[in-house]
Amino acid sequence: MILKLVVDDQTYHIEVPEEMLERAAEFYAKMDADMDRGWQMSRFWVDKPDLYQRCQIVADRVLGAMHSEKKDMMQLMAGYILSRVPQVQEVVVDTTGDITMTEIVA
Asked: From CA 36, how far away is CA 50, in angstroms rounded?
């Protein structure tokens, strides 16, 4: 599967092997459990992020992994989005520091 990620004026296609999604299912479930306890989204605390907000949070982690050149983490985080929103067309990541401005286009 491929996640199309738009960062500023650049488009990236992150390939996530199907088997990675299967192997990471338990890890993704733990991520969901962590987010169930609430998450700081820029200036706001969200008690229970919904699916869209979870994908915004994870898209920010994809961006961080990209900047750190951690390909495995980038694929793993992209896989979370693909596993939760398989019909996703693209993710437009906000780079101003406001996670809530990231767009998940399905």
From this structure: 9
> Along the 106 residues of the chain, how does pLDDT read in single tens digits?
999 999 999 999 999 999 999 999 999 999 999 999 999 999 999 999 999 999 999 999 999 999 999 999 999 999 999 999 999 999 999 999 899 999 999 9
Rounded-to-integer distance, Cα 38 and Cα 30, Å: 13
Task: Give the pairing type, strands 90-93 and 2-7.
Answer: parallel
Virtual torsion, Cα 10, 101, 64, 105, nearest 10 deg: -60
Q: Would you give the end-to-end CA distance of the chain in angstroms?
A: 15
What H or E segment, with its residue span, contains residue 45?
strand 44-46
Backbone angles phi, psi at 72, to 5 degrees: -60, -45
Tell me which residue of 18, 84, 24 sits closest to 56, measured CA to CA. 84
